[in-house]
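Take just one protein record:
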Amino acid sequence: MGRARRAQERVLGHLTELGALSRGGGPDAAFRARLRERLTSAQPGEEPVRPVRRTHRRPRPKRSLSAPIAPIGLVAAMLLAAFATYHAVPGDTLYPLKRAAESTLVRLSTDDVVRGERELVSAKTRAEEVAQLLGSSSAGPLVRRTLKDMEQSTRAGITRLRRAEPRSPKIDRFAEDQRNMVEPMLEQLDGVEEDQAVGYLDYIDGLAAPS
């Protein structure tokens, strides 16, 4: 408001000086020089030049390195958990999760051949688990339960395969693989566990296709 008023007063001053001149005459040299000085120094209504103020820009937030690392760590943790679950044996904390995953795969199979093959894969896995349990001080009940699960999976898988492919060569290959896995265990088994293994071997020996 003050700057506008001063400019207005400056213009009015010029007009007053011009009005004081006689009509038909021009301004004298002193007035012209004074007017030129004022106009060149500061025009009416012109704001004085202000020094440029540098504005400080806020630094851009740095991207946290933890952002891309977080999903990588999550994936790594999931892979480790899956690996530990896959290699769990009876008695381990993650073993029920392993069995639940196997059962889900079997139930999701609608084709008898696929479902039968998955049952036989489960039977092979139980045989591997028995081999890992042997020698453990608390292996007795776990071995008995695992041998029982192995036989149940074997019978279920063979039944389905025979229903879909009565003379499937997969049955003969399975019987041979299981015999090679279970027969050496007899030396480390006794009592109920040994009887279970012998009965299982008798069952798979009868799976050979008739000649």
About this structure: The chain has eight helices and no strands. Helices lie at 2-19, 29-41, 66-86, 95-108, 112-133, 139-164, 169-182, 191-205.
